[in-house]
Amino acid sequence: MKTRDHLGRHVVAVTGIGLVTPLGIGVAESWAGLLAGRSGISRITRFPTDHLRTTIAGQVDLPEEAGGSSLTSPARVERMGALAGAEAIAAAGLGTDGHFPGPLFMGMPPVEVEWPQRLDLARRGNGAGSGKYPEMIAAATGRVDLFEGALFGGVGERLADRFGTQGAPISLTTACATGASSIQLGIEAIQRGESTAALCIGAEGSVQPEALIRFSLLSALSTRNEDPAKASRPFEKTREGFVMSEGAAALVLESLESAEARGAKVLGLLLGAGERADSFHRTRSNPDGAAIIGAMRAAIADAGLEPGDIDYVNGHGTGTPENDKMETLGMRAVFGESPPPISSNKSMIGHTLSAAGAIEAVFSLLTIRDGMLPPTINHETPDPAVGLDVVPNVARAAKVSRVLSNSFGFGGQNVCLVIGAAP
């Protein structure tokens, strides 16, 4: 296998993967649940949902939360990122001594002091419990844990220390494209020869009251609370919003030359990446679809391929009327009248937001490895305006050599990855 691509860049291999999803902790459990068409969506049990329009989500049950209080979002992001990262590093057999030979690219959501913490400060303030800001500030004085927990780069710093990665860790957020962006940065670092390896993690832990209410106010969430397992309905006619979820994925990337030199098992290749932004609206894409279409075409061209070379598309497929309409437009523009199959794992695990692009990259690798297309479940009434092969309801055997994985974020942030079979 050539170790340089069509542009003379280092070929990027994946040698380790790790997963945490509402379907389970670990690659094997999550993938088995996905192929079985099992839903990980349930009623929210982590906090009261009285008077909320949406009362369902994809939740990850962490062992340390059993019988106790729930972790805050930053702590959940760090814990799930650590679980996925450890699994990926162990699978790769690289950095298992605590010295990983490359940088960490950490995709994660914005973090902040959350309502339970603020209310606790209000109760403690000067003993009066008035909730006035001077009293809350006084109660927070010396609380290093609050500061470090709400420090955006803190999670990446601590994970970099845990795994012994090289250089300053890069923490980033690009809305729903974040996980794919973290992988893109790793790809580019290796392609340029700046590093022979990279640890790329996307993690999300925002199933908490404030985030849920904010998305609800944007009218973005499904309110199909009566049957949580059937709430997420990408590409289906009765879709009416996405289901919030959480999880993490990690990928160990290496130059193919480095991986072959140490005899590592290569799980697949990251052949190309494309990104485009339209800055049109905080939640809606530009109606012309230029950025979505451009990101898809850019990724395929970056891989040195033509649209006809793509065997399957792992869709962004959130289940909102707007997203699925625009992704359909992109599919038609890029692939013409004979597009490849496209399915959405968000129908089963919900929208994992900052983790989605990384989780879907792992699922794309597994699709190639096992020759199985994961289904889009809850596909009861086809939408004639979509008209795509969405692999409805049941997984399907297929020969897959190249996958396009789409990640389209709020604010017009779009990243697409082309993933290929191992040599």
From TrEMBL:
Which Pfam families does this one have? ketoacyl-synt (PF00109), Ketoacyl-synt_C (PF02801)
Q: Which InterPro entries match?
A: Beta-ketoacyl_synthase (IPR000794), Ketoacyl_synth_C (IPR014031), Ketoacyl_synth_N (IPR014030), PKS_Beta-ketoAc_synthase_dom (IPR020841), Thiolase-like (IPR016039)
In this protein, which residues make up the domain named Ketosynthase family 3 (KS3)? 9-421
Keyword presence, Transferase: yes
Single GO molecular-function term?
3-oxoacyl-[acyl-carrier-protein] synthase activity
SUPFAM superfamilies documented for this protein: Thiolase-like
User: Which biological processes are named by the entry's GO terms?
Assistant: fatty acid biosynthetic process
Q: Which GO terms describe its cellular component?
A: cytosol
| Highest taxon, organism lineage | Bacteria
Q: What are the entry keywords?
A: Transferase
Q: Does this UniProt record's set of keywords contain Transferase?
A: yes
The pathway entry for this protein reads as: Lipid metabolism; fatty acid biosynthesis
Q: Which family does the similarity line name? A: Belongs to the thiolase-like superfamily. Beta-ketoacyl-ACP synthases family.
Write down the PANTHER family for this protein, in alphabetical order: 3-OXOACYL-[ACYL-CARRIER-PROTEIN] SYNTHASE, MITOCHONDRIAL (PTHR11712:SF336), POLYKETIDE SYNTHASE-RELATED (PTHR11712)
The name of this protein is Beta-ketoacyl-ACP synthase
What is the species of this protein? Dankookia rubra
